[in-house]
Design goal:
Distance between the termini: 41 Å
Order of helices and strands: HHHH
Structural class: mainly alpha
Strand content: under 5%
Largest sheet: none
Radius of gyration: 15 Å
Length: about 120
């Protein structure tokens, strides 16, 4: 069901993909061992969710503020790479699942870098 109240940042494809990635990670970590509940599981979920959250948080601000939040979102995406690698090394996920995560993160990072570049070009023509 679609909300009657729409926010402009929700139209950004990168935001939508980041929201989807957060759900992928949330489902993924449910299979991690219980001892990771407040460790890697939590860290991975928070980093994945923070990608979309930072895009949304920075969107209504000035261009410089938006760029800062895009950078934070990229840092969160990089953190997700480390979390996925840790999960693979601990045998919580397969090599194939790690590759899927890396592909999604790579797509997100490229989109965010492009958005950052376009925002900076608008600011500094």
């Amino acid at each position: 069901m679609k909300s009657n109240y729409h926010f402009k940042f929700e139209d950004l494809q990168v935001y939508q993909k980041a929201m989807d990635f957060g759900e992928v990670v949330d489902a993924l970590v449910k299979d991690f061992p219980n001892h990771e509940l407040y460790a890697l599981s939590s860290q991975f979920r928070r980093a994945a969710d923070s990608i979309a959250l930072n895009i949304a948080e920075g969107y209504p601000g000035l261009d410089a503020q938006f760029v800062k939040h895009i950078n934070y979102a990229i840092y969160n995406a990089n953190e997700c790479v480390s979390c996925s690698t840790k999960a693979k090394r601990r045998f919580y996920i397969s090599f194939e699942k790690d590759e899927e995560n890396r592909k999604l993160i790579s797509e997100l990072t490229k989109m965010m870098s492009s958005l950052r570049r376009k925002t900076l070009e608008r600011t500094n023509p």
